[in-house]
Design goal:
Elements (H helix, E strand, L loop, with lengths): L1 E6 L5 H9 L4 E3 L6 E6 L1 E5 H4 L3 H4 L7 E2 L1 E5 L3 E5 L2
Length: 82
């Protein structure tokens, strides 16, 4: 299972909202430490679809992740199960 931890701040709300709309991603949280947890066999996010500017996009992994990063470029993030 690939996991992405997302800090519970207003700026990252679009990540959680997009994941909640995807039936392949399980969203839980926020936990007591202030993070959402996104779990799936493969997590794929698109910067433009989230409406993120580059600076915010570059901070998308600040909460950490579990899995193998397949793609992290200026527009896409893909994390897969190890």
């Amino acid at each position: 299972m690939a996991t992405l931890f997302v800090l519970n701040v207003e700026e990252f709300t679009p990540i959680v909202e997009a994941a909640a709309k995807n039936p392949e991603i399980e969203v839980s949280g926020p936990n007591v430490l202030g993070y959402y947890r996104l779990d799936s066999e493969k997590i794929q996010l698109n910067r433009k679809e989230l409406g993120f500017k580059h600076a915010l996009w570059n901070g998308i992994l600040t909460g950490g992740f579990i899995g193998q990063m397949r793609v992290f470029d200026t527009d896409r993030l893909e994390i897969e199960n190890i």
